[in-house]
Amino acid sequence: MLKKSHxxxxxxxxxxxxxxxxxxxxxxxxxxxxxSEDATNSGNEKVIRISIGTQDQVINTAVGxxxxxEKKLLEKHLPTTGKYENVEYEIEWSSYTSGPPxxxxxxxGQINIGLMGDFPTVINLIKxxxxxxxxxxxxxxxxxxxxxxxxxxxxxxxxxxxxSLADLKGKSVSVPFGSAAHxxxxxxxxxxxxxxxEDVELISQSPPVGGTSLRTGQIDAHADFVPFGELxxxxxxxxxxxxxxxxGVPTLHGIVVRSDxxxxxxxxxxxxxxxxxxxxxMYRENPEAISGDIxxxxxxxxxxxxxxxxxxxxxxxxxxxxxxxxxxxxNSITTLTxxxxxxxxxxxxxxxxxxxxxxxxxxxxxxxxxxxxVLETANSYVISGEDALTKESxxxxxxxxxxxxxxxxxxxxxxxxxxxxKMLPKLREEGKVASVMFVHDREKGWKLFAENSYYVKNGxxxxxxxxxxxxxxxxxxxxxxxxxxxxxQQTIYAQNSEQAALAPSK
Length: 506
What we know:
Structural class: alpha+beta
Largest sheet: 6 strands, mixed
Mean pLDDT: 88
Radius of gyration: 24 Å
CATH superfamily of the largest domain: Periplasmic binding protein-like II
Number of strands: 18
CATH topology of the largest domain: D-Maltodextrin-Binding Protein, domain 2
CATH architecture of the largest domain: 3-Layer(aba) Sandwich
Helix content: 25-40%
Shape: globular
Number of domains: 3
CATH class of the largest domain: Alpha Beta
Distance between the termini: 81 Å
Strand content: 15-25%
């Protein structure tokens, strides 16, 4: 059993640094802030320091991190009455490339609230139980999740002859150790008959280092979390050979808080949850604009941000704590225990004792939101409306396609892949080009880059697939052929030409 939390007032030294993204400037910088206590008195005013550790590059944290920070949403919701009257707030934000450094600083009392993925979250919770004394870490809300593991991926250099995990035997693979991607990689290798300890050389590398290593040919493959499995292919120097969705294991990014901070300032934690809920609303109301903002704040191209967090995206923006989320955490405990990454035996069921959704519930109450309403909003965040070409209603999001014209504010939605392809010549005539095109896996609904997908045309319907083998199985059943994006374009254009030639003249 876990120890009951007791109130503590630690002296906290805060090191504030924000890692500049390597893929913008190819360099990094660090800044620091001085130290002070969580709450100090200055005349008649009390100063409360709020320290939040996020991961700007990991866009799953955007609605709890960069968006809250840059839109000043926490400041908007912080309490100012009662014991918080005449309080001066000092909000310290720090950004990291992965979760473990946030845990280290939380245990050291330098961060109060941390945002991280499922594997780092589990390590965070367990380390606090082992090293936190009377202080625990508590899981208080979810930022984004995938019920099947989408977001984690394995990529190789674009010109590599490696096309599957089986081809990695005897090769070097880097991954951020202790991350969700690390767990995904180890499971995927084992599932494909590869011994992670003997058959491959595993190297611990952060996303920036892993990307550079791929570019320069220093490694054969790199496994990573959101958004790098899509970002590196989008930038043209890598290709994806394995998607975490193939594991079928749920994954998430969530929010943890030090129990002493939450016990002392529950209204501040609730205020943070309100800020996160508002960031969710802002994103859903205008995903293209906020994706563009996140590109400026985090250096991740807006097209990739939208791919993950937009309607029918790879990740679901869902702040609640549901069974799929607890299962992700339980699975992380099991996997980390099997791999010897935790120092002692931990019952996966213990995770429920680390969860407290009272702050989220209170935030919803104060914002006049019900749990069912928030959940329904998350579940219904899919492609809808009318087709940009035919004006027909979009009924099946899994068969829908999207196109973002370079320089335009809004994404075009289509009821089918065929309609999107038919729109391309019209855009070319207008001197417009697509910065990105999205389709969805016929069977799983995963959002895919159109140019990196496989297709099968059966009559008027065009089905897209992430994996060539899935496309081939579907093609064999219908007696059709598999095509790449150029091939499906040629087929659709040829059919249109035939239909135009047969059409009666007016």
